[in-house]
Amino acid sequence: MITAKNYKFFKKNNPIFILCALLFLVCLSRLLTLGTYALIDPTEGRYAEIARVMVATDNWITPQIDEDVPFWGKPPLSFWATAICYRIMGHSEFATRLPSWIFGIISVFLTYLLGSALRGPVFGLCSALVLSTTGLFYVLAGGVMTDPSLATSVTLSMVGFAMSLQSSGSCPRRLWGWAFFAGLGLSLLAKGPVGLILTFLPVFIWSVCNKQLRSSLKILPWFSGVILTLLITLPWYIAAEIKTPGFLNYFIVGEHFQRFLVAGWEGDLYGNPHNHPYGMIWAFFIIATLPWSILFARTFFKKRKHPWPVKKPEETPWFSYMLFWALSPAVFFTFSKNIMITYVLPGLPGFAIAVTMILINSVHKLPKGQKPWYMNKKVLALAAFFFPVVFCCTTIPIIRNRENMKSQKNLIEWFEQKETYETAELIYLEDEVPYSAQFYSKGRAQYINKNDTHKIDEKFSDSDVDYFVVRQEIAENIPWKYLNINKKVAVFGKYILFREQQHKETDKNLNG
After folding, report:
1. CA 239 to centroid of chain Cα atoms
2. In whole angstroms, what separates CA 4 from the centre of its chain?
3. Are 380 and 327 in contact (CB under 8 A)?
4. I need a labelling partner for 452 at 20 to 30 A (CA). Which of 285, 296, 358, 416 fits?
């Protein structure tokens, strides 16, 4: 209820109300898009299937890519979150993507808390708005990946460290110190040791450059904090190694050393290495931070009397802290070829606060009443809603039009409208069933190697109606003596769906 006391909050020119409204609209727009397009192979389909199998087998220790096939590539934090959503909401695209949105909201809130502690609520809301509308962050706030959980964990540690230094009382300082170590533990459950590196690298460099290494070491509750980190992390790592021996060797050595140091690493069990030139991560960083990277560069490299974007000299260290935080993923992965654009995500909250410092500082350096063109309300609103509008109005329709190319949803739905898995089998002539097909069929789709004619013969000799899914590029090369007893019933992107013809009685249903 609006009263005379709180009426001022809702006034048209109240910056807090305006920023809250903009932030709410941005977060709501991403929430409403979570279920509007199919899960995309291979990444989204794979991680969704792992969470589905976790619920189906009730095995919460070992993530599995298929029943009885362990997935050693990532720790379980993201899979746990998705599996919990499945238990509560059932299996759907919305439930699959919701955890990433929640992780994103937590990161936005932590960014607001730190910004508010540094310069007040308006600054905190500006920082949160910049973060939520940064290109990569907005997209991955609904992406089925492990990066959002890692980014939130790193953000918790970085905010905890900064708030510990900012806090005056011993109790708040200790609580934020524990938050720092809790973030370390969660990052180990989100994506492994890389979270420790992305936290300690900027903290160490910043502490040394600002001659605060000793005070930084003293401010944190190391003994109780390390115990907290171990309590969060060790139980799962020990249980995972006991349940599937060999996990630690593959995950620690393979995924965290060979993956990044060996170009074209051939030991990857779950995907293909991403081979890029050295330093490509910096190009990824610029792309990921659009459109704010343009305003950041325009303002930061503009000639000025004062080198740092601050209102007060004592605030100078915090800009460098944010800058080190933002750039630490790019610095760490500079000499790695096996990288993805998502690797820069943990640094984006620091980037958002640094951008806000730059923009607000540029206003204070001008004569009273003057503002640079990029601080115009319309320009900032356009920048803030650039990616949300592009994503909702352009990207999602494009994805939906290409669902047959990157997802098996439409094929599975077509099959389930015509048949049941009790009366017909859906068989992919592949080395494995595509991940999205496993998810949408709830693990009931099968596969046979296209060259295994013996097993294919067995399928034709049984009494079941069989449907075969074949990629168009190999359909003509398959040594099929069966084409005269199969009918091409549908095409889904690069896949052709064939059906056995010895059961004529179901043809009417297919044409119905």
Report:
1. 26
2. 43
3. no
4. 416
Q: Which string of DSSP letters, residue by residue, matches 300-329?
A: HTS--SSSS--SSGGGHHHHHHHHHHHHHH
DSSP state, residue 504: G
pLDDT band at 314 (very low <50, low <70, confident <90, very high): very low
Phi then psi for 499, rounded to 5 degrees? -135, 140
- What six digits make up the tokens of 22? 């903009």
Inter-axis angle of helices 348-364 and 147-166, nearest 10: 50
Contacts of 229 (CB under 8 A, 6+ apart): 181, 182, 184, 185, 188
Q: Tell me the helices (H) and strands (E) count for the chain, helix number first.
A: 25, 7
147: tokens are: 């990066």
Q: With the C-alpha atoms ordered 294, 295, 298, 302, is the resulting torsion angle positive or negative? A: negative
Note the pLDDT tens digit of each residue in 452-486: 778 877 777 776 778 989 888 877 766 555 555 56
Whole-structure pTM value:
0.88
Give 68's DSSP letter.
T
Tens-digit pLDDT profile for residues 73-89: 889 999 999 999 999 99
Close Cβ partners of 125 (under 8 Å, ≥ 6 residues apart): 15, 16, 19, 20, 23, 112, 115
Q: Which two tokens stand for residue 112?
A: 């607001």
CB atoms within 10 A of CB 45: 26
| CA separation for the pair 57, 72 (Å, rounded) | 17
Q: Which residues, at least 6 apart from 309, have a Cβ–Cβ distance to it below 8 Å?
A: 299, 300, 319, 354, 357, 358, 360, 361, 362
Beta bridge pairs of residue 119: none
- Token digits of residue 273: 């290495």
446 DSSP β-pair partners? 427
355 neighbors 296 (Cβ within 8 angstroms): yes
Tokens found for residue 376: 């115009």
Cβ 390 vs Cβ 383: under 8 Å: no
At which residue do the structure tokens 């001022």 appear? 8
How far from the centroid of its chain's Cα atoms is residue 46's Cα?
13
Tokens at residue 340, please?
Answer: 């993805």
| Alpha-helix residue ranges (DSSP H) falling in 11-70 | 15-32, 43-57
Three-state DSSP class for 101? Answer: helix
Spatial separation of the C-alpha atoms in residues 102 and 71, rounded to whole Å: 24
- What is the strand order of the sheet 424-428 is part of? 446-447, 424-428, 465-471, 495-500, 486-492
Strand 424-428 to 465-471 pairing:
parallel
